[in-house]
């Protein structure tokens, strides 16, 4: 597989209403950050939203055992059991101990009336508490609970945040001493029980180097980043953020003194406890390429024009070698959205791509900003139209053209066999080659991730990967370990240039022996940081 073209250093500066850069203005090259992601990774704090189940009671020998299961929303597989209202009516007696049973073979015993537990996988569990008093009598009560991950509802890209105009947040640039508060629930139909939001986040009009971190409101800012930028740059990334009790998220900035940026956020969907679409991870593969005519016309996409991709029944190229090519064919029905990595290359000018369900009309949000002579890419979750198709449009003021290619990582479905999303118990730095054994990932080498969640039924991981200090141009590919030779991987995830720091979201398919990153470059090396934000698991 050939190395993708490098990202050009000269980009344009000001932004149009559609987040397109004004033609002709010079943009400085991004400088590598000395602190991509902030090395001190904090544990994911508990979210304050709670779903309280009915209190159940049982009485024996004057002793009343009471149990209230409480599910912290956004905590995925966690449960809190509260027996604090247990009482004894025996004169002079008092409660002396509690024994909690979580229904999966695990128990907790002590004098505390509360116990917390995290399950290995979603399912139906019978939880119980046995309460003992000072007379030696005990009473037991149980309750049946459902532990479930979250399903996904796709949305055609819709702008819900723009700090330049005050849309969705205060009209002010983000600085290292401020944060952006973004209401989520109630916006564009997002329900009150939303557990996560998926946004295409864009930093524009940037000053100095910086790293943006988005996290649940009223929680501690984690020590990782979602988006890294250089001075005078426009750059985007997909993010998935848990939604807490008050229905809002925050974004903060760390970076050089004087660092600042305006933020644009385009909604691509949300996770909730309601039944919607589950996720099917596949071997990543190329599903669209205008250079070869793969599943579309063999012609460049011009500004002001669209191309159509028939997703239903489409065949993606999942591996290529000197002896064989393997493919995967998607189902012909029940697909509601596709997880893609969309790229542009061989561009003659600047533009913006937007992707949306066929037949729905052009949306207000974007999925990728691209620039003249660059190879640019960005992940996107694109809703599929009722006819099984999506459209990709190029918009802008220049008479530019670009080739477009897209790689699929999986799809969302209302059919059987999908997996639900579960936020990680703690945002975890899985890999930092700057301090890990083995050092930088050299050209042609790969790095298998260790320390990922090992819960039963995991099919894919929600990751953010950051490239920093590369010594040459290259391309990073993510693949399921144990299922394919890295040299045969047909998909790509991050195109990077010499000296660039860039972060990209990845929904990485889990292989039989893990997940790996391959440095598809002909020379040099790069440092790699990988953070886990959650995973998908079958029920």
UniProtKB/TrEMBL annotation:
PROSITE patterns: PKD
CDD domains associated with the record: PKD
Highest taxon listed in the record's lineage: Bacteria
Compositionally biased region (Polar residues): 40-51
Domain PKD residue range list: 98-152
InterPro entries: Ig-like_fold (IPR013783), PKD/Chitinase_dom (IPR022409), PKD_dom (IPR000601), PKD_dom_sf (IPR035986)
GO annotation, biological process: carbohydrate metabolic process
Keywords annotated in UniProt: Signal
Region (Disordered) location: 30-51
Signal peptide range: 1-28
Name this protein carries in UniProt: PKD domain-containing protein
